[in-house]
Amino acid sequence: MYNYICETCGVQYKSTNKVPEQCLICEEERQYVSSKGQNWTTLETLLESGKYKNIVKLEEENLYSLTTAPGFGIGQTAYLVQNKNFNVLWDCITYLDQTTSKTINDLGGIDAIALSHPHYYSSQVEWAETFNAPIYIHEDDKEWVTRPSEKIIFWSGESFELCEGVTLQRIGGHFKGGTVVEWKNGNNQNGVLLCGDIVRIVADRQWVSFMYSYPNFIPLPSKTVERIAARLNKMNFARLYDAFNRVVKVEADQRVQRSATRYIEALNGTLFQT
User: Name one Pfam family in it (predicted).
Assistant: First the structure.
């Protein structure tokens, strides 16, 4: 019995005797099946290869990024938030080895794991079992869980406070249960928003974007972006980190609002003529 992992998206599946025929995540229009076809691996195979390692980097006080080198799957970044003796792992990466476990335990371990959306579920159950931590996923994305576990807690509503100063906010968009983390204590109390790619920082780091599908370039409707912008306007943050370690360092709240306005104007045909 193996917990197979899709090589394209990096998401791990429940234990089976044979390789799955298809990936639930990649077959859906927001993701894609590799042009080389559907391929599978296991965490054990990744470990035995000796090819990968995780890089744990201090981004700012009480915030660490976790990335796998060379990149695997989608190649996203996870973050470890240290908040008043309560450590939150935001989003997940597939690769997990003993070196990573020791490094994180030296930083105080993990008290909770929270996910932005299904593309980053990766090997979340492995992480939860290793650190004996619950996983928080919005109930609207329950259908996308490929490896069920008693560690998973499906929360409901628009917000959920993990601990004082760290709140999960469902803003939807990319996925119905799309979630961001409002970390009020971060950035010297000026606030940090950890957004996965529910909000995505673009090449010009002064702007962000909002998409239904990033790899397939499917935009969100203007009314959805208006709703997202209104929700974000009520949150406390001056800095923003996305899933690919891009950062808007200052005035992130204002830049998000300006980006939403530009996006809506582009969709409505008032931003430019071409």
Answer: Lactamase_B
